[in-house]
Structure formats: C-alpha cells, structure tokens
Design brief:
By secondary structure, the protein is of the alpha+beta class. The protein contains nine helices and eight strands. Helix 1 crosses helix 3 and helix 5 runs antiparallel to helix 9.
Length: 252
C-alpha cells in the first residue's frame, strides 16, 4: 500500500474485529498474537469498541467477542446480501444433488470471505468454516478459483512480497508451484484444496464471473475419505451447472 492512511487506530480496530469474526471469544493476549498489535493498545481499542457495543466481554474469563451493534450491519442491504439472496435458490438446488458443505465467498482485500454456508443434511461430519470467516487465496480451493481468473499482471501483483505461510503440511508454499497450480485451474475451470487449509478436508471450487471479473466463488467441501474419482466427477458436474445458473441470473 503506497498511500498513507488517515486514522491508523481504525485500521487496528478493523484487525481486531476481523480476528473476532470467527465467532470465538478471545483474550487480549490472543488478539495481540492474531493482529501483531501490542496488548496495551489492544486493551484501549477494545474499551472504545465495548463502549460502542461493537464487542462484548465474558464476565468470567474476560474474553471478547463481537457485540450486538454488529447486527445492524448484518441486517443492512448491500451488494453482498443481494448476491446471497440471488444465489440461494441455485445453491439449494445444488444441495439436493450433493449433500456436502456448500460455500459462497467473495473476494476481499486479497482474501475470500464466506458470505453463505449450507450444511449437509444427512452427514455426520461438518466443516469448521463460518460465515464471515476469511481465507487466504493461495491456500483455499475457493480462493484459488478466484486466482484462476487473474491475468499475469494481476497474479504477479498478488504474489509480490507475499509470504506463503503453511496451514497444514500440504499447503503450497512454493511460488512456482502455486503459479503452476493456478495455470491448471485456468485450464480445468475449477480449483481444489487437497488438505491445504485443513488436514483431512477436500474442496472443489469454481469462480462466479460477471463482466469478466470474479465477483464470487462457490465450493463444495467434504472429508477427503469420502472422495472417489466418480464422486469427484459428479461434484464437478453439479458445480459447473450451478455456476452457469448463477452467471445467467446475474446477466438478467
């Protein structure tokens, strides 16, 4: 970022809220580790956020979580909520075909953020993802689906100076290997996450493109042990059908 921002406290407050967006109560020390902001500064910002009801704290453990004032933002009509409403019928039809975890995510600040999640109806194992959770583009299937729509200049800009941190032993952390993987995504039309974000998890994802730009992505996630070649082909076919339905609806 070349432009100097006004109000660095706001940036730090946003980092704190992002850390709390996974729904887990967190102490000042944990938030400091997540955000790389020192504990005294974290405490001061939390005091203001608590006064405004953007965060609340547990009585016994003194941990913080998102407060009631955040609800009004979730209720606001935005482009994102319109997209969730528009895609819901197609995703529900997809769920009838494939009884696995289905995600809708949007690109945001070099990450993807889950904005809708459909849980499987007849499975006993569930994914740990939550609506509002952010994932890195390079390590998630739904993120790599977005990267697959980037041209060379956009991909180079994304990778410049970026540290590819491992989330599991299987995360791609070599830049050349990632570039090769993205080339494969472009060729196949879909991306996979083969235990790169969570050990034991497998994800197949496709971008939702409107006006030659990926405005979102959809994915199907499952425990890897359920994956077979024939099931994978079935998932890809169902995802492709849903992608086409959504992109057609966007053009209306």
């Amino acid at each position: 970022m070349t432009e100097k921002l006004y109000g660095t406290v706001l940036v730090k407050a946003s980092q704190i809220l992002d850390s709390l967006s996974d729904g887990k109560p967190k102490s000042v020390q944990v938030l400091s580790k997540d955000t790389a902001i020192n504990p005294p500064t974290i405490s001061k910002i939390l005091s203001t956020l608590e006064y405004l009801s953007y965060v609340s704290r547990t009585v016994d453990t003194k941990e913080f979580y998102l407060g009631p004032a955040m609800i009004k933002f979730g209720a606001a009509r935005t482009t994102t909520t319109n997209l969730v409403d528009l895609t819901r019928p197609a995703l529900e039809r997809l769920q009838l075909l494939i009884d696995e975890t289905i995600h809708l995510a949007i690109p945001q600040k070099n990450k993807v953020v889950y904005v809708n999640k459909l849980e499987p109806k007849h499975q006993g194992i569930y994914m740990t993802s939550k609506i509002g959770m952010a994932r890195e583009l390079y390590s998630s299937g739904i993120g790599k689906a977005v990267l697959g729509t980037y041209d060379k200049n956009e991909l180079d800009a994304y990778l410049k100076g970026r540290e590819l941190k491992p989330f599991t032993p299987y995360t791609i952390t070599n830049e050349k290997e990632l570039i090769s993987e993205i080339a494969k995504v472009k060729q196949l039309g879909y991306a996979i996450d083969d235990e790169e974000q969570e050990v034991g998890g497998y994800c197949i994802a496709m971008p939702i493109v409107n006006h030659e730009r990926a405005i979102a992505a959809i994915s199907i996630s499952m425990p890897k042990f359920r994956l077979t070649p024939s099931y994978k082909s079935r998932v890809i076919k169902a995802l492709s059908k849903t992608k086409g339905e959504i992109e057609t609806e966007l053009q209306k």
